[in-house]
Amino acid sequence: MKFICPKDTILKEVEYASNFTSQRNSLTISSNILLENYQNVLTIKGTDNKMGFLTSFPVFTDVPGATTVTCDKFLQVLKSLPSMDIEFSEEDGKLKITPLKESKSINFNIRTIPAEHFPQLLTYDESQFFSLSQRDFFDMIDKTSFAVGTDESKFFLTGVYFEKKNDDVVMVATDSKRLSCIKKRFEQDIPDFKSCIIPVKFLQILTNIGIGEGLFSLMITDTHIFAQINGHLIYSSLITGTYPAYERVIPNEFKYECKIKVSEMIEALNRVSIFVENKSKKVYLELKEDGIMVSGETSDVGDAKEIVPCEYSGDDVNITFNNAFLVTSLKKIDSDYFRICFNSSKTAMALFPEPEKDFIFIIMPMHG
Fold first, then answer.
1. Rounded CA gap, 335 and 215, in Å?
2. Minimal CA–CA distance to 56: which of 17, 24, 19?
3. What are the angstrom distances between the C-alpha of 252 and each of 247, 329, 330, 338?
4. CA distances from 195 to 55, 139, 169, 221 (A)
5. What's the mean pLDDT in 173-184?
6. Which end of the chain is flanked by fewer CB atoms within 10 Å, N or C?
């Protein structure tokens, strides 16, 4: 096998492919990527047996062929090379890498494993894909993925729940202490599909490959999710398990609500966080009609207090929040104002953009 390709072109694709290889054992075939070079087209494949990647792009084919190479070292070599045309040739079980203009001074050789040892990627039915707006779908990912759980013992919370409800598409994430839910109605015709739990890594890779403009295609089976985006095919196993009945967590009505400017609250929380205990992460909000007192205290150092203007009419209420949860949620609100809605200081708190949009954040208050 022998082909010539611009370094920057192949580097970008190998960086994408590296997300689909096994990082645990560099000696296994799943740590390699497959390079198939035929008729001036290079196809790169990668899989760790749970996720898969495939892309093709033009190169100059000198000698057609296929082989596999350790992705990690291959990527390190490519990053080290100057931006120019690179010659890749396999000889005697090694992939030789040579920049054309530096052929006498730079040479790398990486051991290869024959292509026939590389596992087959999953097959799929092209007719089952449906189109979605990248911008809208990526917005759904952004509004939810930050709230997924990290506790592997609750593996069904480590992904994003995805379902179609009537004519809307819904995405939900929760770690049992906070919840984010967004609902969108796409311009594209979306067929019914079985609700599923998507690994957050797959969604993060999808947004990395995408450009946020135009359409991409999605397909969901009983066990896997597939996406075709910007000339790439990627897929992943779905997370098994029963997702919690998230709608039960969202109150149907609220007794109190308080309207606040997003930027003023974030700035106050950032200042007060200097005196928020690293371990407890507790920040205290005292709601009154003339403003919200935001405060934090570090027992052995000091404390901080700041009053933030608000629109509120109701009883004085003291609420304790996880500061990180509150700030992270507020940063996702793309409106000038938001509302905190609640029924008591000990029940679920809802954060809505003002004016109300298609998403809601739920945060459980902390004790004390």
1. 26
2. 17
3. 9, 21, 22, 18
4. 28, 19, 10, 10
5. 96
6. C
Of the candidates 35, 39, 163, the one whose C-alpha atom is nearest the C-alpha of residue 88 is 35
Please name the residue ranges forming H helices in the chain: 7-18, 71-80, 134-144, 200-209, 262-272, 323-331
Tens digits of per-residue pLDDT, 320-350? 999 999 999 999 999 999 999 999 999 999 9
Provide the token pair at 183. 């609902």
- Which token pair is 186? 């796409």
| Backbone φ, ψ for residue 254 (5° rounding) | -130, 145
Pairing label, strands 337-342, 256-261: antiparallel
**Per-residue confidence (pLDDT) for residue 300, from 0 to 100:** 84
| pLDDT at site 105 | 85
As beta bridge partners, residue 63 has 2
The neighbouring-strand residues paired with 362 are 179, 350
Residues 6+ apart with CB under 8 A from 205: 16, 19, 234
Residue 225 is classified by DSSP as E
**d(C-alpha 263, C-alpha 89), whole Å:** 56
Q: For the chain, what percent of residues have pLDDT higher than 70?
A: 98
Predicted structure pTM score: 0.93
Whether the CB-CB separation of 114 and 94 falls below 8 Å is answered with no
Which of 14, 43, 17, 48 is closest to 31 using CA atoms?
A: 48
Neighbours of 16 (CB within 10 A): 19
Burial of 296 (0-12, 13-18, 19+ CB in 10 A): buried
Q: Residue 311 — φ and ψ, nearest 5°?
A: -110, 110
- Mind listing the pLDDT tens digit for each residue in 84-122? 999 999 999 999 999 998 766 889 999 999 999 999 999
Of 141, 256, 153, 247, the C-alpha closest to 201 is 141
